[in-house]
Amino acid sequence: MSLEWLKLRPWNGSQQTALEKLSVQLLAHEPVPDGSKFVAKGSPDAGVEAFWTFLNGDEWGIQSKFFLGALTENQWAQIEESFHNAVARHPRLVKYTVCIPQDRADPRLEKQRWFMDKWNDYTAKWREYAQDHGLHLEIDYWGEAEFLDRLTRPENRGKLLFWFDQHLLTIDWLLGRVEEAVANVGPRYTPELNVKLPIAATFEALGHTPVFFDVIGGHRARVRKEYGRSQAGPARKEVACDWASLDNDTAEVVSALAAAKAGSVSTRKLQRWT
Q1: Which of 55, 84, 108, 236 has the most neighbouring CB atoms within 10 Å?
Q2: Same domain, 97 and 233
């Protein structure tokens, strides 16, 4: 799945505010030491939308910017201004997370400066600025990959639905839909009268069910059986073909099917033989 950021549900008419709220929600559920306290801010926010305070008084703050596409100098300046405000007003800051809904382009081309190049330069300057103000802090980045990782966790499926109107297809969600369908059909549903359709095999494969692996095992057994017949009979003497190549290919197929039955073969390797 992908996150379609232009479809992010606005909050108070603003997608910028929506991203701030989403970032705060996710930060609130990040793993932190026991006894830490979480504070979500309103606007103005002194450079952080929310922050954790640890037992020793150190803080982890977060700042979000709804910037899509290549960042302009003005947008970099906005991030820098927020960082300066955070350093000035949160003197116990030890970690600062910048949230921008895009991954950092990093083609590493000579004489070209892309997102990652600029990020590295700016963060080096910001860390030096923080050190001049007595802070030694970590600056990290949440882009689309980091948001996607968090939003596709089962515990965050409600956030995904609310902010993007997308369902996360967890096992619990799928079981719930089956139970709804059975309840709606009521006494008309009888498992014994269930009609099997060819597409059922596709779902068995997608689900990596025992039935699917039994089918794989059956294919392997048939290949080995037919290969054994070719060795025992007169075919090798009477049929002109590259038997050495056939032997190698058959061994590879049998090996691939054995690995597939164990659930360890790649889809690409299996597709080569189908």
Answers
A1: 84
A2: no
